[in-house]
Amino acid sequence: MAMWVFGYGSLIWKAGFHFDDRLVGFIKDYRRVFYQGSTDHRGTPEYPGRTVTLEPAEGEVCWGVAYKIIRKEDQEAALEHLEVREKQYDMKAYLDFFTEPTATTPAISNVLVYIASADKKLNKNYLGPASFEEIAEM
């Protein structure tokens, strides 16, 4: 069975793993926000940089790319890569993915999405909301 992974940030242009197909589309009821701190590739522990994550937002959509991975070996390699790359994201969700704005039925169900939660006990790198100026400065 194929595995699908949704990219909504840098995964859009730099997957870093082999994939068999790529579809542009969106997930519903989430929005992209620069609330996650990064201490390994966008900053340091003393000065974390900001990266995107998702937060629930009823009625909104987040556009991105879904990658289809067919072979078991490629799926394992992709997950190994993503577990390192997305290590500061504390949640995985399996969501519906749509390709048409008016669709009520998803094009793909159970697309894997990495999310950094707002729970400071589980996600020590969560930075939360800030002004555009503060985000740009970081």
TrEMBL record:
InterPro entries: ChaC (IPR006840), GGCT-like (IPR013024), GGCT-like_sf (IPR036568). Its EC number is 4.3.2.7. Gene3D superfamilies: Gamma-glutamyl cyclotransferase-like. One of its GO terms (molecular function) is glutathione specific gamma-glutamylcyclotransferase activity. Keywords: Lyase. It comes from the Eukaryota. GO terms for cellular component: cytoplasm. It holds the Pfam family ChaC. The keyword Lyase applies. This is glutathione-specific gamma-glutamylcyclotransferase. It comes from Olea europaea subsp. europaea. The lineage of its organism: Eukaryota, Viridiplantae, Streptophyta, Embryophyta, Tracheophyta.
